[in-house]
Amino acid sequence: MNPQPYQEEIYHLLHELDITYREDHHKPIFSVESDDLDIPGPQVKYLLLQPKKTDEYYLVVAHDETHPDLKQLAQDLGTKRLSFPSNEAMKDLLGIEFGSLTLLSLIADTDHKVTPIFDTAIDRDDTIGLLANNNTITLTLQVRDVEKYLNHLGYTPRYLELKQK
C-alpha cells in the first residue's frame, strides 16, 4: 500500500521534534462512531468548517459526544455561517480524503488557511488519537505535543468553549 500524502513527513517531523506517540494499525475508520479502538484518553472528533464565501477554514477538535452549535461557534469566531467543505475542497487543501482528517493533516496547509481550534473541555495533559493522514493508522499523542507540532508548523491553536446544540 502506498503511503498517504505527507505521511512520511509527519513521522519525520514527530521524530525531529522528539514527540513520542503510540501507533495503532486497524481497519479503515471513517468517523469517531466507527472507531472501536482502545485508545487512552478522551475520544475526539475533527470538524473542518468553512465560513461562507471565504477561503479560510477552522479545524475544530471536540470530544466525540459534543455536538457543537455551529451558529454560536460562528458568532464566537466573528464570522458568518459555517459549513462543511466538500471532500474535493478538503483534498485540495490538505491532500486527504474524508475519514482521514486530523490536526496532523495541517502539515499540507502551507498557506495557513486553517485555524486549529480545541474545545476547552480537552485538557492539555490528555492524550488524543490522530490519524496519520491514513484512516488505518492512529497515533496517540499528548495534546501538549500536538501543540508543539502545530507551533512548529507556524500555528497557534485557539481554545474555545464549544456550546452544545
Task: Name some characteristics of this structure.
165 residues; alpha/beta; YbaK protein; five-stranded mixed beta sheet; three-stranded antiparallel beta sheet; 4 helices; 25% strand; globular; ProX/PRXD1; YbaK/aa-tRNA-synth-assoc-dom; Aminoacyl-tRNA deacylase; YbaK/aa-tRNA-synt-asso_dom_sf
Oligomer: single chain
What is the mean predicted local confidence, pLDDT? 89
Helix content: 10-25%
Q: Any low-confidence stretches, pLDDT <50, length ≥5?
A: none
Provide the CATH architecture.
Alpha-Beta Complex
Radius of gyration: 15 Å
Number of domains: 1
How much of the sequence lies in strands comes to 15-25%
Largest sheet composition: 5 strands, mixed
CA(first)-CA(last) distance: 40 Å
Number of strands: 8
CATH topology: YbaK protein
Series of H and E elements = HEEEHEHEEEHE
Helix segment count?
4
Family: Belongs to the PRORSD1 family.
Domain YbaK/aminoacyl-tRNA synthetase-associated: 43-148
GO molecular function: aminoacyl-tRNA deacylase activity
InterPro entries: ProX/PRXD1, YbaK/aa-tRNA-synt-asso_dom_sf, YbaK/aa-tRNA-synth-assoc-dom
